[in-house]
Specification:
Length: 724
C-alpha cells in the first residue's frame, strides 16, 4: 500500500497529537497507580511503536527505556509471533535485562494495537515495581551475586490473551513479591495505560486513515533524524572523552571506571566505551541496553530537545561497547541497580563528552551543561506499615539533586535529572501518609554546588525517622554512588559538586526534644551515636534512629574567579554558600557582620589565587609560548577559554584570553597546561578525605585562567577532553 504524502502543517498537528497520546498514557499511570514512585516521582515510561517495532513517539518518562523497548517489540514479533501468537487484546510483559530491559523491577507492558483485525503498532509502558521478589526488597538487590537472586524475570509472557487476564500468572507475580497490594495496583495501572494508547491510536486512524497514519509515523521518525543530523553537521568534527568512577559496592571496595570517547564525523556520532572496567560480581552492572539507554538519555535533552524522541534520534548513533564490562555485562551477572549504576554512569560520561563537544560550536554552546546530580542514593524502606502489613517503598529524593551550570546561567537548584524531564520531588505529606516515617527536614545544602563562573545547582537533603511503625524498625537499603569519588563534574574550568553524604544517628534524643517543646531541624540539633555510611549500604532504622541523606549538587561552568562579585554576594545572603566558601573558591571576601563586600581584600584575594595557581602548577610538556602573530580569539572554540587557531597549514590550541599557545591539536592541551593535584577537599571542605581519588586543576601558564578541573585516580593518565 502506497504511503500518503502528508503536508507540513498536518504533520505538525499529527505529531503533537501522538505526543499527547503518550502524555495521556502517563496521566493514566499516575491516576490509577497507588505508588508514590509513579504518582509523585513519575518513574515510568510511555511510548508508541509501529508494527515493526520502530519507536514513533516517546513520552517524557525515563528516557533510558525508549530504544531498549524497540528491541523488545522486535523480540516479541520474532519469538512470540508464531507461538503463542499475537492477537487483539493481548498484553505481553517483559523485564529480562538479557532480552531487552534494564532491570527486573522496571516491568514493561507491551500491547499490540490492531485496526480492523490488522496489527498496526504497539504501545509500551514501564513502571518501577516496588518489589520484584529478589533477595532484597525494592527491586534492587545489593547482596545479589547473580541475576537469579534479583527477582522474577519474564521474556515476553502473556499476561492477557484476547482480552482475558491470565489470573494464574497475575497471582504468581503477586505471590512472589513483598507488597502484593501495591504491585497489583501497578500492574493494573499499566493495563489501563495500554488500553488508553490503543483507544487513542484507533481514534487517530479513524480520523486520518490507516494509510496516513503509517505515513505520519514514518515521516515523524524521518523528521527527527533529519533535524538531528543537520544539527550535527553544524558542529566541528572531533573526539571528546570522559571518565567517571564508581567506588566499591557491597561485595568489595574495588574501584570501577566507565570511560567513553565520543567521535563526531559529519552527521554521525560514535560512542566508544573502550577502557571501561570489567563487570562486577555485584548489582551495579548494566547490559548493553543500559549503556545505549544511558547515551540516549544524554543525547535526547542535549541534541534533540526540539524533535520527537523516537527511532530517528537513535539512527545517527553507533556504538562500541566491549562485552563483559560494567556497561555490557554478560549473563548471569547481576544488574538490578543498572538504572542508577552502569546505565547512570554511561549517561553521566555521555553528558560531559557531548557538552564538551557542544562548547566547540559558537552556535550550540548554550546547550552544553555541566554534570547534573549524578547519583541516586534513594532509601528503600521495608517493614510493617501503620496497619501492621508488610510494605516496601522507595523515597525518590535523589530528584532533589542540583542541575549542571551552563555558559550563561547557574544550574537549577534541586533540579532532578535531564533524562527524566517530567519527574518531580515526592510530596512529603503523601509519603508520611503512606509510610510509617516522619520528616525532620527537606532543605538545601549549603556549599553543595560546584563552583564556577556559573555555579551548579544546589543539592537537597532529607532527614527522616521511623514513626508509628508497629515493628522493631525499618530495613533500609541505600543504593547509590559518590560518597567517596566526586561525580558531579564541572566543565570549562568549573569545579565538581560535593560528595553524597549518608549518615545515621542511632538512639537519638529526638523524642525527648519534642517532648520538651523543641522541634529539631536536623542531626546537628540532636544527640546520639553518629554513623557515616557509604553510598551503598544496608541498615535497620530503629524507632529512635534518624537517617540523613545529602544528595549531589550540579557541576560548575567556567573559572570561579570570573564569577561576578554580585552573584557571590547574593549566594552568601541566601545561605547557598558560606563566607569561607566565597573566599576560598571565588576570592570574594565578605564582612562577617553584615555580609558586605570587602572590595580591597577581594581584589587582593583574587590576585593571590591566580599567583598560587602559577606557582603550584607544573607542565608535563614545557615549551608553550604566548602567540605574537595572531589575535588570541580566532578559530573555533574548544570550551570557554581555548580556541583551535590556524597557523599556516597547521592548527594550534591557544588560550582565548591571553593567546598562550599550548601546541598542536594532536597533543592533549593538558600536557602543556599548569597542572596541580589536590585532595577532593579542594572542591569543598566537607568532601571525602580519601586518597584513592584526586582533584587535578589545569590552568593557563600565561594568565592563570582555570581551564579544566578533573577528578581522577592519583596515577591515571590525563583525560583527553578535546581531540581531533
Amino acid at each position: 500500500m502506497a504511503r500518503a504524502k502528508i503536508d507540513p502543517i498536518t504533520l505538525e498537528i499529527a505529531m503533537h497529537r501522538l505526543w499527547q497520546v503518550t502524555e495521556e498514557m502517563g496521566i493514566t499511570l499516575s491516576r490509577t497507580s497507588g505508588s508514590v514512585v509513579t504518582i509523585d516521582s513519575r518513574d515510568y515510561m510511555t511510548a508508541i511503536y509501529d508494527a515493526q517495532g520502530n519507536c514513533i513517539m516517546s513520552g517524557c518518562g525515563v528516557l533510558y527505556h525508549t530504544l531498549a523497548f524497540a528491541d523488545a517489540v522486535k523480540f516479541l514479533i520474532k519469538e512470540r509471533g508464531e507461538d503463542p501468537g499475537i492477537f487483539e487484546g493481548d498484553i505481553f510483559i517483559l523485564n529480562d535485562p538479557y532480552v531487552a530491559a534494564l532491570h527486573q523491577a522496571d516491568m514493561a507492558f507491551f500491547t499490540p494495537i490492531f485496526y480492523k483485525k490488522r496489527l498496526i503498532g504497539w504501545s509500551a509502558t514501564m513502571t518501577h515495581l516496588l518489589d520484584i521478589g529478589g533477595i532484597d526488597p525494592g527491586g534492587i538487590s545489593l547482596r545479589a551475586t547473580e541475576v537469579y537472586q534479583e527477582g522474577i524475570r519474564f521474556r515476553g509472557a502473556k499476561l492477557m490473551e484476547r482480552g482475558k487476564l491470565s489470573s494464574e500468572l497475575f497471582e504468581f507475580i503477586l505471590n512472589s513479591v513483598r507488597d502484593p497490594g501495591m504491585v497489583g495496583l501497578e500492574l493494573k495501572a499499566q493495563m489501563a495505560a495500554g488500553e488508553t494508547a490503543r483507544r487513542r491510536v484507533v481514534e487517530f486512524i479513524e480520523e486520518y486513515g490507516l494509510r496516513s497514519y503509517k505515513s505520519i509515523g514514518e515521516q515523524v521518525i524521518n523528521y527527527a533524524e533529519d533535524k538531528l543530523r543537520a544539527r550535527l553537521r553544524e558542529i566541528p568534527d572531533g573526539s571528546w572523552s570522559s571518565t567517571i568512577y564508581q567506588e566499591g559496592d557491597l561485595v568489595s571496595d574495588r574501584i570501577y571506571q566507565v570511560s567513553l570517547t565520543v567521535t563526531k564525523k559529519d552527521d554521525g556520532l560514535l560512542f566508544d566505551f573502550t577502557g571501561t572496567s570489567p563487570q562486577s560480581t555485584s548489582c551495579i552492572n548494566c547490559t548493553t541496553y543500559g549503556a545505549k539507554g544511558g547515551v540516549f538519555g544524554a543525547v535526547a535533552p542535549l541534541l534533540a530537545f526540539d524533535v520527537p524522541w523516537n527511532q530517528g534520534v537513535f539512527s545517527p548513533l553507533s556504538f562500541v561497547i566491549p562485552k563483559g564490562t560494567l556497561v555490557s555485562a554478560e549473563f548471569p551477572a547481576p544488574c538490578s541497580m543498572a538504572t542508577i549504576g552502569g546505565a547512570f554512569l554511561a549517561a553521566n560520561v555521555a553528558l560531559i563528552a557531548i557538552s564538551n563537544m557542544l562548547t566547540c560550536s559558537e552556535k550550540h554552546k548554550t546547550e552544553a551543561t555541566a554534570q547534573w546530580s549524578p547519583s541516586s542514593p534513594n532509601p528503600i524502606l521495608s517493614g510493617l506499615n501503620k496497619d501492621g502489613r508488610n510494605f516496601v517503598s522507595i523515597i525518590m529524593e535523589a530528584l532533589c539533586g542540583g542541575g549542571g551550570a551552563k555558559c550563561y546561567e547557574d544550574g537549577v537548584d534541586v533540579a532532578g535529572k535531564p533524562w527524566t524531564p517530567e519527574a518531580t520531588h515526592p510530596n512529603v505529606e503523601s509519603l508520611e501518609l503512606q509510610l510509617p516515617i516522619l520528616y525532620l527536614n527537606r532543605r538545601i545544602v549549603p556549599d553543595s554546588a560546584g563552583a564556577g563562573m556559573f555555579r551548579g545547582g544546589m543539592a537537597g537533603e532529607l532527614c527522616i525517622k521511623p514513626y508509628d511503625s508497629p515493628g522493631e524498625g525499618l530495613s533500609t537499603s541505600l543504593v547509590g554512588m559518590g560518597s567517596e569519588a566526586l561525580l558531579g563534574f564541572g566543565i570549562s574550568g568549573g569545579y565538581p559538586a560535593h560528595n553524597v553524604k549518608l549518615r545515621v544517628l542511632k538512639n537519638s534524643n529526638h523524642a525527648q526534644r519534642i517532648g520538651a517543646g523543641f522541634v529539631p531541624r536536623g542531626l546537628e540539633e540532636l544527640e546520639g551515636e553518629k554513623l557515616v555510611l557509604p553510598a551503598m549500604a544496608q541498615v535497620v532504622l530503629g524507632q529512635d534512629d534518624i537517617l540523613s541523606v545529602q544528595y549531589n549538587g550540579g557541576g560548575g561552568y567556567g573559572d570561579p574567579l570570573d564569577r561576578p562579585v554580585e552573584r557571590v554576594l547574593a549566594d552568601v545572603a541566601n545561605g547557598f554558600i558560606s563566607r569561607e566558601f566565597a573566599t576560598d573558591k571565588y576570592g570574594v571576601v565578605v564582612d562577617a557582620v553584615n555580609n558586605n563586600l570587602l572590595e580591597g581584600e577581594t581584589e587582593a584575594r583574587r590576585r593571590k589565587i591566580s599567583q598560587e595557581r602559577l606557582a603550584s602548577g607544573r607542565q608535563m610538556t614545557p615549551g608553550g609560548s604566548t602567540s605574537q602573530d595572531s589575535p588570541p580569539c580566532c578559530g573555533h572554540p574548544l570550551g570557554e577559554y581555548l580556541t583551535l587557531d590556524s597557523d599556516g597549514n597547521e592548527g594550534r590550541i591557544c588560550c582565548r584570553k591571553c593567546g598562550y599557545v599550548f601546541g598542536p591539536p594532536e597533543r592533549n592541551f593538558k600536557e602543556s597546561a599548569l597542572m596541580a593535584q589536590y585532595p577532593l577537599t579542594r572542591a569543598a571542605p566537607g568532601n571525602s578525605k580519601t586518597k584513592r581519588f584526586v582533584i587535578r586543576e589545569f590552568c593557563c601558564p600565561g594568565c592563570a585562567t582555570m581551564l579544566e578541573v578533573e577528578v581522577a585516580r592519583p596515577d591515571s593518565a590525563f583525560v583527553r577532553s578535546f581531540g581531533t
